[in-house]
Design goal:
The structure holds 2 protein chains of 2 kinds.
Chain A lengths: L3 E4 L2 E4 L5 E7 L7 E6 L6 E5 L3 E2 L7 E6 L2 E6 L9 E6 L11 E5 L1
Parallel strand pairs in A: 2-10
Antiparallel strand pairs in A: 1-3, 3-8, 4-5, 4-9, 5-6, 7-8, 9-10
Chain B lengths: L2 E4 L3 E3 L5 E8 L7 E7 L5 E7 L6 E3 L7 E6 L4 E6 L8 E8 L7 E4 L3 E5 L2
Parallel strand pairs in B: 2-11
Antiparallel strand pairs in B: 1-3, 3-8, 4-5, 4-9, 5-6, 7-8, 9-10, 9-11
Classes of the chains: A mainly beta, B mainly beta.
């Protein structure tokens, strides 16, 4: 199975901050990497697919990058509605493993 | 609009089975496969498996093999997931989610979640 490791597990930030979350795969997944946002009590929502493609309706302050084993999710200017937990997921092979999550909290 | 609507919350005794359903609407059911994902209280999300709505082929995470059955019913555009021999650590919110080839199998539509509580 491909293991997905996110860092950090949590971070504290302020509105307007630039935030970067990293995700590392235990083996190459080319660009089969997705990012999800989950707010408390809600289902996750797809933010980024194919490592760097913005899902329809997602604000442009979100961006993704990377290929192979190392990936990033960047929020260019954190907004109040962005305080949430973020997960990466590989869809290169089954099982389609998720990272453990990164909680973005108010500083 | 495109949506997945799941069945209601369940409370089960240890050793019992639970079946969660997921009804799709607003799109062609057979054009998108369905994944099942769960989330234990306070924990991250865990992929359970995937079913092809086209031919019924499934792929189940090894952890759940032998305990999970995923099915689809095309006339009602419904996918279902049955989990047997329930244990307390199966207490979780269970989600169905549509995957799309256009999003590199990213899950672009999710159900609202079904809470399954396993307790004696």
């Amino acid at each position: 199975d491909i293991q997905m490791t996110q860092s950090p597990s949590s971070l504290s930030a302020s509105v307007g901050d630039r935030v970067t979350i990293t995700c590392r795969a235990s083996q190459t997944i080319t660009t089969y990497l997705n990012w999800y946002q989950q707010k408390r009590g809600k289902a996750p929502t797809l933010l980024i697919y194919d490592a760097g493609s913005l899902q329809s309706g997602v604000p442009s302050r979100f961006s993704g990058g990377g290929s192979g084993t190392d990936f990033t999710l960047t929020i260019s200017s954190l907004q109040p509605e962005d305080f949430a937990t973020y997960y990466c997921q590989q869809t290169y092979s089954t099982p389609r493993t998720f990272g453990q999550g990164t909680k973005v909290e108010v500083k | 609009q495109v949506q997945l609507v799941q069945s209601g919350n369940e409370v089960k005794n240890p050793g019992a089975s639970v079946k969660v359903s997921c009804r799709a609407s607003g799109y062609s059911f057979k054009s998108y496969n369905i994944n099942w994902v769960r989330q234990a209280p306070g924990q991250g999300v865990e992929w359970m498996g995937w079913i092809s709505t086209y031919n019924g082929k499934t792929n189940t995470a090894q952890k759940f093999q032998g305990r999970v059955t995923m099915t689809t019913d095309t006339p009602t555009s419904t996918a279902s997931m049955e989990l047997r021999s329930l244990r307390s650590d199966d207490t979780a919110v269970y989600y169905c989610a549509r995957e799309s080839t256009s999003t590199r199998y990213g899950m672009d539509v999710w159900g609202q979640g079904t809470t399954v509580t396993v307790s004696s």
